[in-house]
């Protein structure tokens, strides 16, 4: 599978679902839902410690349960594939599509890049970056219902992903093409042509107008990928470029958190991402301290789920009940080991 795999490397909320849809619209490329195959393998104990695994086991379970029914023989193929590991799973995912290349765009792979490169040194790599402040604002609003404190306590996304991807971009352990989300939505044809050149495939117009034909529609299980915007557009748009600054208007506490996060990021990593510290600081300083509109409505089920998750995470981090839950969980983990 080495020469048939395309890994999209990028942090969550960076536009990776959009990029995967554009890739999946090409006649030679199959872009299924995020399989989450590599992260568990990287943390089985040889390369890193199991208890520090940087992936969400709930998401991994949901991804596996979405993956298995898509296989020809379902659980039989899954058990056979476990013996031969990722090559067998990837090949069985790709075969029914009749296409030549398979895209895996699981964001958590950015945290196991050393292992991934050892496993697939000859695969094709596409790195997608986005304004870090836009990424963080989207993470807070999309997954934590706007609660920036709980979001950072649960997962300091930028402090984890920016250094990992920045180092990968600088060290160039394998050939890769680097795209910025901002460039992709403002010049989709030009950036897609660059991408096709790296993948050694001809450019196809339908990659830009990915929603106009069935080939561009990825069957993504609910909860994986972008749960809000992924299915709304049929081609790249610039509507989200300034959304993050509007979300911070009149919220000085959120702006302060962004400034503190930015201060913890290294210049080399930011530059590798394609952004300069001074420009990001200027953007934050220019956000009005008052005003700002209400956020648009979101699907009620998604909103309810996120509010429940935020409340549970807040309890775990901030009160006696949460400390009790953590103590019981840790004790059970020890006993089960």
Short description:
With 337 residues, the chain is α/β, with parallel strands linked by helices. The protein contains 17 helices and five strands.
Layout of helices and strands, plus pairs?
Layout: E1 5-9, H1 16-24, E2 29-30, H2 38-42, H3 57-67, H4 75-84, H5 86-94, E3 101-104, H6 113-119, E4 124-129, H7 132-143, H8 148-154, H9 157-171, E5 176-180, H10 181-186, H11 188-199, H12 243-248, H13 252-263, H14 267-273, H15 277-285, H16 300-318, H17 320-336
Parallel strand pairs: 1-3, 1-4, 2-3, 4-5
Strand order of the largest sheet: 2-3-1-4-5
Q: Kindly state the mean pLDDT as a whole number?
A: 85
Shape: globular
The total count of strands amounts to 5
* Helix content, binned percent: 40-55%
Question: Which tags fit this structure?
Answer:
337 residues; alpha/beta; 5-stranded parallel beta sheet; 17 helices
Explain how this protein is built:
α8 packs across α16, α9 packs across α14 and α13 packs antiparallel against α15. This protein has 337 residues and is α/β, with parallel strands linked by helices. The longest helix has 19 residues.
């Amino acid at each position: 599978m080495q020469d048939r795999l395309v890994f999209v490397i990028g942090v969550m909320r960076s536009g990776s679902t959009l990029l995967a849809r554009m890739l999946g619209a090409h006649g030679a490329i199959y872009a299924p839902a995020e399989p989450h195959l590599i992260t568990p393998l990287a943390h089985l104990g040889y390369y890193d410690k199991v208890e520090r695994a940087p992936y969400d086991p709930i998401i991994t379970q949901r991804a596996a349960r979405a993956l298995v029914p898509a296989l020809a023989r379902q659980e039989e193929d899954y058990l056979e594939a476990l013996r031969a590991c990722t090559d067998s799973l990837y090949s069985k995912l790709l075969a029914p599509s009749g296409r030549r290349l398979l895209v895996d765009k699981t964001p958590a792979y950015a945290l196991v890049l050393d292992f991934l490169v050892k496993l697939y040194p000859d695969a094709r790599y596409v790195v997608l970056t986005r304004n870090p402040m836009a990424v963080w604002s989207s993470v807070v609003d999309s997954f934590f219902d706007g609660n920036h404190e709980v979001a950072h306590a649960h997962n300091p996304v930028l402090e984890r992903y920016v250094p990992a991807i920045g180092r990968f971009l600088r060290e160039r352990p394998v050939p890769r093409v680097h795209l910025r989300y901002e460039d992709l939505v403002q010049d989709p044809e030009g950036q897609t042509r660059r991408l096709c050149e790296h993948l050694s495939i001809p450019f196809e117009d339908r990659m830009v107008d990915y929603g106009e034909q069935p080939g561009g529609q990825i069957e993504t299980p609910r909860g994986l990928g972008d749960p809000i915007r992924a299915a709304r557009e049929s081609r790249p748009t610039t509507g989200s470029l300034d959304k993050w600054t509007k979300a911070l208007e009149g919220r000085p506490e959120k702006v302060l958190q962004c400034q503190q996060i930015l201060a913890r990021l290294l210049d080399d990593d930011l530059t590798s991402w394609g952004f300069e510290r001074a420009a990001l600081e200027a953007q934050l300083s220019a956000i009005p301290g008052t005003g700002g509109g209400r956020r648009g409505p979101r699907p009620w089920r998604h909103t309810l789920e996120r509010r429940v998750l935020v409340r549970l995470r807040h309890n775990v981090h901030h009160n006696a009940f949460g400390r009790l839950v953590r103590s019981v969980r840790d004790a059970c983990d020890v006993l089960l080991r």
